[in-house]
Structures are given as structure tokens and as C-alpha cells.
Amino acid sequence: MDSVGVAADAGPGSAWRSKCPWGAPNTTSISCSFADVMSEQLAKELQLEEENAAFPEVVAVAEGPFITGENTDTSSDLMLAQMLQMEFDREYDAQLRREEKKINGDSKVSISFENYRKVHPYDSDSSEDEVDWQDTRHDPYRADKPTTTPRRGFIGKGKDITTKHDEVVCGRKNTARMENFAPEFQVGDGIGMDLKLSNQVFNALKQHAYSEERRSARLHEKKEHSTAEKAVDPKTRLLMYKMINSGMLETITGCISTGKESVVFHAYGGENATEDKVIPPECAIKVFKTTLNEFKNRDKYIKDDYRFKDRFGRLNPRKIIRMWAEKEMHNLTRMQNAGIPCPKVVLLKKHVLVMSFIGQDQVPAPKLKDVTLSSEDMKKAYHQILNMMQQLYKECNLVHADLSEYNMLWHDGKVWLIDVSQSVEPTHPHGLEFLFRDCRNVSQFFQKGGVAEALNERELFNAVSGLNITADNEVDFQEEIEALEKRNEDHVQNHRKKLSRFSSSGDPPIFDE
Ligand code: ADP
Ligand code: MG
């Protein structure tokens, strides 16, 4: 019989094992008609194989009859019917997949006929060998880690849920998570569609949603609040006009500097000395940029500063920028009180800080990096700075945290410290690290500048802080610094508790003022 021949040629059912018994096998040259396949003998063999693979519990019941060859008809009919149904369902499912593919094309969002599929209990096993519709869309789970996927799929999903189902759940979850995107982000109306997004598609959408959100925030920012190059936004301009109108300032002559975080203007002081305030003849107006980009990197200076900690979490970014201005004001005042040469605070209004101008006739004093000093002056400047750093640390309880030749001005034969908005107390969680960085900048500048007696950064650190860190190399030194900072944190906590008893208004506690 042909059908027997087919079975024999192909080995004992080997060609059939992986393929469907009813499909036209490619492995044999003999074409196999449906009638041939229906032959009892072949059917018995195939049944056995299929049963072993797919219906182990049914096989246990039907085992006897197949082996003995008796009473095969009934069992065989049932089995054949089931197998025929299986094959029919598979073909049906394959057709659905083809339809899906046709409809979805290369579209990133796909629709699924999953709910219409005929799911068989063995499907979860056999589907691993098949090309699943999700695979064709580069599902990252399957493509990258095919062996771990099933195990992962079971975790926390219950024992009856297979990988395939897991993906479905995942897809639906991803669709639901689109709700979290910004309201402006159009995700379409997927209600009732049973939309499933693969992780890859969802992640791409999420990325896009976030970048859109940032972009629109930037645009908004630009339009309403930008402190663009050399210009200020209308609100800031109004603040500055008010200062002139009140007689506090005479005129604003122009811009001295546009930095990353601020724009600094020169102004002539007005006649109107209010209260006990004497307005200097020349003023510097530091406008803290209300664009947030640069301040994001500086969060750590302020959010760990216990003076501002209580308020930091509650404030919106615009108010946080005002806090920078406020911080500069407080720090300058402390320095002023300690007699450190620095600008004198005149007025703080929101994010605009008015202080005395270091320089003359609209010409700001040069930064140390831009001035060529005689070796004598260089030496003088070094000793002055060493002294100022000690004062800052001991008397003001501050670490500059951005000390370098860029933030030191040379005026009237001495060094003036500016730009202290980021300055922190030594007990700040990173205070000593900031101090070490300051010491490195200072020591390198003066060593390069030919000051023979300039201490190296470790010696300078000890000289300023009064700490006696003995490590003779930078790595160990920094490790010791970090260990000290950890210990300091306890101290800060205690200090905060103590202070909170005195400061019920939520204002930053002010020292030495
Ligand atoms: P930024 O945070 O942008 O560096 P700074 O406080 O360092 O802001 O100010 C930027 C520049 O503006 C300084 O380098 C200095 O040239 C000038 N400047 C700032 N404050 C004064 C001042 N009080 N007198 C004179 N010039 C100043
Ligand atoms: Mg600066």
C-alpha cells in the first residue's frame, strides 16, 4: 500500500513527527492523498506518535487497544476526529496570522486576532518551534533570550499562564500604560480594540512621548520665561524697571556677563537709599536664569543643604531658582560679616540679586585667570586666598564649592570672591568633596603660576579644614573624606532637629547674621 510505503520511507513516522500528519510532507517524493492518510494502519502509527506528544493522559487510556490492534475503531475515530480538528484549527490560525500580517504590514501598532484563535492545550509547547506573529515583529524577549522567556513568563503569573499568554497580558498592560503619557500625547482611542503593544513598541512610544513632553516644555519655556542671551524675559525686565522707578537704581547700563546660570548687568546706584541701606555708586545685577536646563545639574548643592531641605521638595522649579538667588544672598552676607572681600548685597527680588559692583566705571574687575600678576602679587594673592578659605570655612561655616580662578576677581590690589550661590556648609553630604575640589583648583593655579610655597591640594585641604587627613595619595585621601562625610551626616541630622525647634516658619535658618 502506498501509505505504508510512505511511512516506511520516512522512517517510523519521523517525517511526521514535527509536521502535521495531514499536511503534504516535503520530505518524501511520493504525494500523499487524504484517502491514503486515512488508511487504518498509518493512522494507528500516527495516532500513537501524536498521542504521546500531545495527549499523554488520553494515551494512557487508549494504549491497550492500539498496541493489541483490537477495538481500534472507536478510539481511532475519536482520535482522528480530534487530530483533524487540530489540523483544521491550525490552518485556521495560520490563516488568521496571514490576515494579521496583511492588515498590520509594517505598522508599529498592530491589531491582533488572538481572541479568535483556536487554542489547544499543546499550543504553548509547539508554538516554541513555530514562527510566532510576535517574533516577526522582533519581540525583544524572544529574539534575545529565547530560552529564558518561558521561565520568565511564568513568574508571578500563575501556573496555567504560558509565555504566549504572558505576552498577551504584557501587551495589554503596555496598552493600558499609555494612559500615563502626557495628556497632549495622542495615543488614539484603543478602547474595545484589545490593543496589545509589544514591549519594543511600547518603549519606543514611551521614549517619543517623553521627548515630546520635554520639547513642548522647552518651547513653552522659551516663549514665556527665557532669559535669553543678554536679554531678560518681560517679568524680569519689569522687576528691573521697578528698581529704577523706585529710585534705587539710576540706570542699567548693560550686560557684563552671560553665564550658564545667570546674566549679570551693570547699573549705577540711585539716590534713594531706603531704610538703612546705602546704595553703592555702581551695582551688579545678577539675574538667575529662569530656564531650568543648567540648574538641573546643580540640584545636589541645594537639595542636600539642610538649610533649604525642608522647602526643596515642596517647590516648583521656578521657586527653586529663586532659592539659588536667596542662597547667594545669604552666603554673601555671611562672607561680608566675616570681612571677606566680596560683593555687598543690596537687594534681592525673586531671582534678581543686586549687589555692589567689583570694578570701576562700568569695567568689571578682571578674573584671576585673565589678569597677569607680578610674582609678588601672585604670592600675595595666594596667601590672601588661603586666609579667605580658612575664614570661609571657620567663620562663615561655608565651602565655596566652585572656587577657581574664574570666580576670583582682582580688584584694588586684592582678590574678591564672587559666585557663591552653590556654596554649602562643610557638613553638607558632599561638602568636604567640594572643598577638596576647590583646594585642587587653587593649588594647581598657584603652583602653575610659580608660587613656590603654594601647598598641594591635600595640604591645603588640611590647612583650611583643620582636619588632619594623613593619606599621602589622592585616592586614599578622597576615601577618608568620604568616610568623614558619612559621619557628618548624623551630625547634620541632629543639627536639623535642633534648628527646627527655632525655625517654625520654614524659612532657611540664618547663621552669623
Ligand atoms: P555665573 O554663575 O554665571 O558664573 P558669576 O557670579 O560668576 O555668575 O558672574 C558672572 C560674571 O559676572 C563674573 O565672572 C564677573 O565677571 C561678573 N560679575 C559677577 N558679579 C559681579 C560683581 N559683583 N561685580 C563685578 N562683576 C561681577
Ligand atoms: Mg562664575
TrEMBL record:
<dbReference type="GO" id="GO:0042254">
    <property type="term" value="P:ribosome biogenesis"/>
</dbReference>
<dbReference type="InterPro" id="IPR017406">
    <property type="entry name" value="Ser/Thr_kinase_Rio3"/>
</dbReference>
<dbReference type="Pfam" id="PF01163">
    <property type="entry name" value="RIO1"/>
</dbReference>
<dbReference type="GO" id="GO:0004674">
    <property type="term" value="F:protein serine/threonine kinase activity"/>
</dbReference>
<keyword id="KW-0547">Nucleotide-binding</keyword>
<keyword id="KW-0963">Cytoplasm</keyword>
<keyword id="KW-0399">Innate immunity</keyword>
<dbReference type="GO" id="GO:0046872">
    <property type="term" value="F:metal ion binding"/>
</dbReference>
<feature type="region of interest" description="Disordered">
    <location>
        <begin position="121"/>
        <end position="158"/>
    </location>
</feature>
<keyword id="KW-0808">Transferase</keyword>
<dbReference type="GO" id="GO:0005737">
    <property type="term" value="C:cytoplasm"/>
</dbReference>
<dbReference type="InterPro" id="IPR018935">
    <property type="entry name" value="RIO_kinase_CS"/>
</dbReference>
<keyword id="KW-0067">ATP-binding</keyword>
<protein>
    <recommendedName>
        <fullName>Serine/threonine-protein kinase RIO3</fullName>
        <ecNumber>2.7.11.1</ecNumber>
    </recommendedName>
</protein>
<dbReference type="InterPro" id="IPR051272">
    <property type="entry name" value="RIO-type_Ser/Thr_kinase"/>
</dbReference>
<keyword id="KW-0479">Metal-binding</keyword>
<keyword id="KW-0597">Phosphoprotein</keyword>
<dbReference type="GO" id="GO:0005524">
    <property type="term" value="F:ATP binding"/>
</dbReference>
<dbReference type="GO" id="GO:0051607">
    <property type="term" value="P:defense response to virus"/>
</dbReference>
<comment type="subunit">
    <text>Interacts with CASP10. Interacts with IRF3; RIOK3 probably mediates the interaction of TBK1 with IRF3. Associated with 40S pre-ribosomal particles.</text>
</comment>
<keyword id="KW-0460">Magnesium</keyword>
<dbReference type="InterPro" id="IPR000687">
    <property type="entry name" value="RIO_kinase"/>
</dbReference>
<feature type="compositionally biased region" description="Basic and acidic residues">
    <location>
        <begin position="134"/>
        <end position="145"/>
    </location>
</feature>
<dbReference type="GO" id="GO:0045087">
    <property type="term" value="P:innate immune response"/>
</dbReference>
<dbReference type="InterPro" id="IPR011009">
    <property type="entry name" value="Kinase-like_dom_sf"/>
</dbReference>
<keyword id="KW-0690">Ribosome biogenesis</keyword>
<dbReference type="InterPro" id="IPR018934">
    <property type="entry name" value="RIO_dom"/>
</dbReference>
<keyword id="KW-0391">Immunity</keyword>
<comment type="similarity">
    <text>Belongs to the protein kinase superfamily. RIO-type Ser/Thr kinase family.</text>
</comment>
<keyword id="KW-0723">Serine/threonine-protein kinase</keyword>
<keyword id="KW-0418">Kinase</keyword>
<keyword id="KW-0051">Antiviral defense</keyword>
<feature type="region of interest" description="Disordered">
    <location>
        <begin position="488"/>
        <end position="513"/>
    </location>
</feature>
